[in-house]
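Input record (one chain):
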Amino acid sequence: MAEPEKTYIFHIHRKDGSSLFLHPLSVPSKVVETLEKGPLEGRYGLEPPVEALSGFRNELYRQVEAGVRHWLNDLRFIPKFLIASGVFVVTYVFFSAVVRDPIPVIDEVVLGLAAAVISFVFLGRRDLASRRGTKKRLDLRMVVDRIAFHESQFVRHVEGALHSVEGESAEQVIRRIVQPVQQEMESDLSSSERAAGMAEAAQFVRLLEQRFNFRKLRREERAIRRLARRHAASRILEARHYDFPLYAVYKSFKQTVSGRR
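The corresponding structure, as predicted from the sequence alone:
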């Protein structure tokens, strides 16, 4: 039986000393599936500070809460919807029969909808505090606690490239964006190490695309190229609040993974 594909979490140490974590648990609808499907491993280049790892673990705990809430909402949507619909009907009929008002129907509909929404929210909170919800939350938190970070030559390569770009002028950064250079894997690596590095690179590129609005940046590249020819690169960086050094590194590794710019 083939081993399940590893899912990676990347810690990127930036030139200013700050930490950037890239992980696939930022979307609540994917949290439960990702944590349950297979091994999850951390990768770093320069060793991350203990406080950064502690803060990240707390962030993952919050993502687990959001993920379990989404999982329960999907699992229990139809029963909750039917109960809330029943509450609406009962409330509507009750106030229609008991309360006489000059404008019929409107008040009853409003009260019925309010009662239905309140019951739907109440049922959701009860599900979250239920035995099933509590067990799922504890199981996923244990998975988070078992995530271990290991040094990665690939991440060291990423950090080296990023630190280099972060120290360059605006014109040089824009040149890297419009004319990306493919990042080469280390020549002295074994075939298995190169394969592992390419797997990490593919997930690194995918996580960057999920976290940052690089699609919008790709649409703006035509304007960037035009302004770059006019030597107005510094104006581009000041006018647009994007992480251009990281985008330049992304473009380079994207070309490595896919062979396309």
